[in-house]
# Entry
Amino acid sequence: MIEIELNDTICAISTPAGVGGIAVIRISGPQAIEITDSLWKGRSLAGAASHTVHYGSILDRSGAIIDDCVATVFRGPKSFTGDDVVELSVHGSVYVQKAAVKTLVDAGARLAERGEFTRRAFAAGKMDLAQAEGVADLIASRSRAAHDIAIRQMKGGFSERLQMLHDSLLELASLLELELDFSEEDVEFASRRKLLEQAQDLRGEITRMASSFDSGNAIKEGIPVAIVGPTNVGKSSLLNAIVGDDRAIVSDIHGTTRDLIEDTVNIGDFTFRFIDTAGIRDTSDTIEKLGIDRSRQAIGRATILLQVIDAANPQKSEYLQNITDSQHLVAVINKTDVAPSDEAKTMVCGAEAVVEVSAKTHHGIDTLRHALTEIAQTLLAGNGDIIVTNARHYQALVDALVPLQRVIDGLTSNLSGDFIAQDLREVLHHLGSITGTVTTTEILTTIFTRFCIGK
Ligand SMILES: Nc1nc2c(ncn2[C@@H]2O[C@H](COP(=O)(O)OP(=O)(O)OP(=O)(O)O)[C@@H](O)[C@H]2O)c(=O)[nH]1
Ligand SMILES: [Mg+2]
# Structure
């Protein structure tokens, strides 16, 4: 999709590959209705009003019936793509789906590229780029939290906020220009101090948005939870108890787990990515050492750490020394079915929650699951109403902060307005790239080829 033709008529199967009750084939473009009508047995679609549904049969080139189906007609510009669109609901046989697409292609439609329907919607001004990416995120969302963020983005919440930032920056630029126009006369339109305050506010807002990316990305991809601790404390047993499956090997031999073992589970509104790690201890075993290195890396990358302490053999946790402010620590005292938790509790340091469990009897596992959703909730709540989940948006915000800092430095050191205006334009450029007011074919191709065909 390097040079994309946006004026012909395209078609694709929009439902997932395979057999289903029904499958939807979408046709979009200036000839969508005409092409479908040429293969249609039933009342002609040529005069059909927009947003109407019609029963008939789809025919192959020889006139034989491929299937009875329902055609929904949307006339442009009031359609998803802005062009005329027909959606055919056929029976979900793999053969019927393929035969229907083939007959449409034989009659003059072209097979759509990945994401081409949404790309056309963007080109027609139906949505901006951030909203189009929201559509892709919505399709990919696996939890309520990820769905909520995606739907807000798709409905334009993020775009609106960017527009406000854009307007503030333009205002700043025009005030600077006024200053330039009247610099000969001794009139002060806006004091530099005021402009500086405004620029600092903008920096605060953009920084806040950019820093929400860590949480946003975790919510979208699954919040990484590392299960860590010394050997034999029951980390693998805990993973199995949480995910409700025999995912990891459990044994009473110290150093059983060597590699990272991951499993993804939805709890409440969130997706969590649990990572069982090798128990940390001094060892001369080469493979085990490599495993322990991986445990330490997993600790560095996790959003939530479950520090597992064996109630029957409590030990200190030097391995948690380097955790950062943005990481959340939960102490899990395990094997409470065989030993009291008092001594283990004295090993807890800096944890947000302490949960007593038995991975064996499953006692306390629900409490632990609840504690995890409470932390996840703070990830959502701690970032205001805009949460950035897209790496491209994050990068654009970070890129915008560089020239914005130059604006602030320029205002502080009383630099001439035209230099500052140049930096302001650069900030606007980076913010504009998020919604697609400034963009290139290359960027568009990268974004839309991540979509599925038929969307
Ligand atoms: N009684 C009791 N035994 C447990 C509990 N959890 C785990 N165990 C036992 O403790 C032993 C170690 O369990 P694992 O889950 O393999 O421990 P681990 O922390 O993954 O160990 P490494 O992989 O070697 O680091 C096994 O014999 C488990 O059956 C529990 O809650 N109660
Ligand atoms: Mg293990």
